[in-house]
């Protein structure tokens, strides 16, 4: 079971080790893949360094009426033909919708993967936009019943976090979401962490910071444009009191059309790297990656959303996905629970695509230059009379010395650093380590 760290900034495993949340967005996983496809998907993401997969039980794309890979739907209908959240379609002697979810959760556990389960996409509570399928089926009473059922069913599964919201702001239905959260808590006995996933540009902290059930905050920086300053959203949550961990739960997806407009182009591996390093160095406890073909498990013949063009199996190997393991590797390489965002470490922070972000631990420091721009560091902010300086390549995960012959440099005054290359797509991380560490 995952827990929140003592300082309320990070996730931790039961043994106290930090858990760097490296998530993949697989919203349609339960709904569209069969067992063999599921195993192949999970194994691939495991090999690529992901440790969390986010998926939805009642999905947006006809998630009530459209059958899963085994011809099953999640809910029974009432006498008026309306899908009833208080009547899960558990069918004896059949591999029903819920047994398939059981399989996915258990297979993920065998790979040491956490499943971030979204009980329902937000359109089942509030349509919210003209593209939503709905229908709206939840009220306060059946939301609590549904939450209790889901929570109880997976009470003893250790590899779960709950994600409410499903790309919707709570607005006038906030009581429904609170009821569902209460049902989850009643059902699972408080065994699992809960958050809320809002619409683009918003954070769960706006509505639920003081709700006891909201264990950590999720914001969605979204797909509105290149170089979107998601670090500002993270920083805003980071400085709320009392503290709660925060994460960018839906940043710009790889190969997603920019602002849903193909004429503006598509987000590339560089865009998803930029969002990841900006977010974590601003105070996030991890990051979530997404690919526009993978979240919907697009195949030719299916309706394509958000510019999806690749078959989902091909999209699994896109470069941005492969580079997320380097994000996780860097932050796990040093004491992660010490990491504190600190822009005072650098004198020229720059804006837009060139923005530079910095954070430090007790004996180490990271500075991310998004386009390889030079920067000046205020030394003496980490331990050690001397420090070793290295460049970390976010494209390859390789490290090289940032100083001739690799000798240590004095940890005092101000030092200027020039990344090996510069330009769009030429991002670099400077690592400074206490030379005596």
TrEMBL record:
SUPFAM superfamilies (alphabetical): (Trans)glycosidases
Matches recorded under Pfam families: Apiosidase, Collagen_bind_2
Domain Apiosidase-like catalytic: 5-337
Residue stretches of biased makeup (Polar residues): 397-418
Residue numbers spanned by region Disordered: 394-418
Domain Putative collagen-binding: 340-433
GO molecular function: hydrolase activity
Keywords assigned by UniProt, alphabetized: Hydrolase
Source domain of life: Bacteria
Name the record gives this protein: Glycoside hydrolase family 140 protein
């Amino acid at each position: 079971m995952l827990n929140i760290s003592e300082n309320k900034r990070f996730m931790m495993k039961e043994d106290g080790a930090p858990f760097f949340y490296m998530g993949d967005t697989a919203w349609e996983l339960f709904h569209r893949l069969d067992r063999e496809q599921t195993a192949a998907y999970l194994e691939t993401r495991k090999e690529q360094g992901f440790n969390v997969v986010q998926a939805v039980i009642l999905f947006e794309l006809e998630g009530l009426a459209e059958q899963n890979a085994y011809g099953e739907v999640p809910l029974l209908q009432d006498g008026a033909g309306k899908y009833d959240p208080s009547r899960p379609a558990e069918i004896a002697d059949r591999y029903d919708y819920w047994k398939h979810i059981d399989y996915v959760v258990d297979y993920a556990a065998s790979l040491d993967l956490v499943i971030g389960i979204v009980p329902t996409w937000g359109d089942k509570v509030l349509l919210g936009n003209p593209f939503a399928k709905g229908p709206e089926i939840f009220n306060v009473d059946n939301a609590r019943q549904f939450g209790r059922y889901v929570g109880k069913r997976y009470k003893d599964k250790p590899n779960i976090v709950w994600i409410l919201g499903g790309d919707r702001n709570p607005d006038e239905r906030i009581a429904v979401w609170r009821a569902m959260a209460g049902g989850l808590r009643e059902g699972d006995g408080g065994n699992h962490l809960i958050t809320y996933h809002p619409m683009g540009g918003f954070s769960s902290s706006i509505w639920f910071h003081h709700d006891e059930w909201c264990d950590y905050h999720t914001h969605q920086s979204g797909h509105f444009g290149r170089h979107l300053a998601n670090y500002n959203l993270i920083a805003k949550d980071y400085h709320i009191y009392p503290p709660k961990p925060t994460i960018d739960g839906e940043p710009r997806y790889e190969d997603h059309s920019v602002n849903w407009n193909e004429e503006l182009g598509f987000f590339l591996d560089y865009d998803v790297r930029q969002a990841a390093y900006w977010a974590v160095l601003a105070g996030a406890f991890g990051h979530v990656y997404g690919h526009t073909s993978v979240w919907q498990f697009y195949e030719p013949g299916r309706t394509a959303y958000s510019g999806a063009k690749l078959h989902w199996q091909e999209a699994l190997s896109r470069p941005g996905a492969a580079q997320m393991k380097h994000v996780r590797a860097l932050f796990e390489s040093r004491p992660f629970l010490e990491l504190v965002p600190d822009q005072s470490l650098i004198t020229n922070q720059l804006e837009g695509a060139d923005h530079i972000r910095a954070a430090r631990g007790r004996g180490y420091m990271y500075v991310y230059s998004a386009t390889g721009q030079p920067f000046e560091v205020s030394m003496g902010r980490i331990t050690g009379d001397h420090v070793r300086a290295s460049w970390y390549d976010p494209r390859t995960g390789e490290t090289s010395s940032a100083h001739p012959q690799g000798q240590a440099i004095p940890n005092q005054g101000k030092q200027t650093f020039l990344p090996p290359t510069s330009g769009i797509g030429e991002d670099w991380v400077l690592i400074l380590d206490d030379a005596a560490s």
